[in-house]
Amino acid sequence: MDTLTSMRVYTCVVKLKSFSLAAIELNISSSFVSKQVSQLEKHLGAKLLHRTTRSLSVTELGEVYYQKCLAILDKVDEAEGLVSTLQSNTSGNLKITCNMTFGQLELARAIPSFMQKYPNVTVDITLDDRPPDLIRDGFDLAVRIADPQLPNSSLIAREIAKISLFICATQQYLSSHGTPKNAADLANHNCLIFVHAANADAWTLENDNESVTVKVSGDMRANNSLIVKASMLQHRGISNLAGFVIKEDARANKLVRVFPNHKSEQLSVFAVYPDRKFTPPKVRLFIDFFSQWLKQNHVSDPWQ
Questions:
Q1: N or C: which end of the chain has fewer CB within 10 A?
Q2: Does residue 147 register a pLDDT over 70?
Q3: DSSP 8-state assignment for residue 254
Q4: Does residue 87 carry a pLDDT above 70?
Q5: For helices 108-117 and 281-297, what crossing angle results, to 10°?
Q6: CA–CA separation, 129 vs 102, rounded Å?
Q7: What is the CB neighbour count within 10 angstroms for residue 255?
Q8: pLDDT in tens, 219-267
Q9: 3-state DSSP call for residue 27?
């Protein structure tokens, strides 16, 4: 049952003292009006209306509930009107900084939709894997993966998504060098390391019984995960990369998950912004938009 819808129907019935007039007013069927009121009474466990074929009156409890409904619906309408006003009036330049690869592969796909929805907002994007100084550099917000690293207590970090890491390699590499059966076997493999990952040199394998972290090494380290992936696709070794980095190659069967029966290590995506008494609408709207966009478009497991 949609409680707000039922409340709107009920208040209209009481106001007009008629099911049929309420149906005309709301442009719905009389049967739907009757059903909504009946469901509401069943939900509350109370009789709200006395009704016969010729008359309709409100019970004592029904009158109390009617007044409360009016107050609640007024607040709902006020909130919806505020959001509508913010959406239509939001303007200005939004200055964002984001991790390099996440910005290229995820943020870049979301920004056009955001700008279409809020045409009066312009966007200035800087991609950088180094922790930013939001206050010094004048950023409105940062999108960061893993530890938000808040050296300044005047910053707020809001988690907006989770991403998963996957240990993977090409089938050709595994055919030539063998497929690791457990964490200890990784010591015998060339592990390609993305240095900006949390615990870059220590990979974690977890199942229902235990969690094992193993120190890894290899002949290549890079501060960009796309470079690491490119080397992996040339059958150079095994790597531990985020799902959004490898999803297209996984779907094309170019990469194989090495430990498919283990849980993926997860990292958080944060929106970091200055702590102000009044956060600009453009910042709040973008954070809400991007959080929802990630829920709808981010691929948690590229092999599924």
A1: C
A2: no
A3: S
A4: no
A5: 130
A6: 10
A7: 25
A8: 999 999 999 999 999 999 999 999 999 999 999 999 999 998 888 888 8
A9: coil
Residue where the block lists tokens 């002949």: 219
SS3 content of the chain, % helix, strand, coil (to 5): 45, 25, 30
User: What average pLDDT does the segment 76-95 reach?
Assistant: 78
Q: What single-letter amino acid sits at 279? A: T
Asked if residue 148 lies in contact with residue 272, where contact means CB atoms within 8 angstroms, the answer is: yes
Task: Determine contact, residues 139/239, Cβ cutoff 8 Å.
Answer: no
Q: Which helix (H) or strand (E) holds 163?
A: strand 155-169
User: DSSP labels for 52-65?
Assistant: -SS-EEE-HHHHHH
Closest CA to 228 of 245, 214, 205: 245
Q: How confident is the model at residue 121 (pLDDT cuts 50, 70, 90)?
A: very high
Secondary structure tally for the chain: helices H, strands E: 11, 13
**Crossing angle (nearest 10°) for helices 225-233 and 243-251:** 30
183-196 exposure pattern, b = at least 16 Cβ within 10 A, e = fewer = beebeebbbbbbeb
Rounded to whole angstroms, the Cα distance separating 254 from 302 reads 12
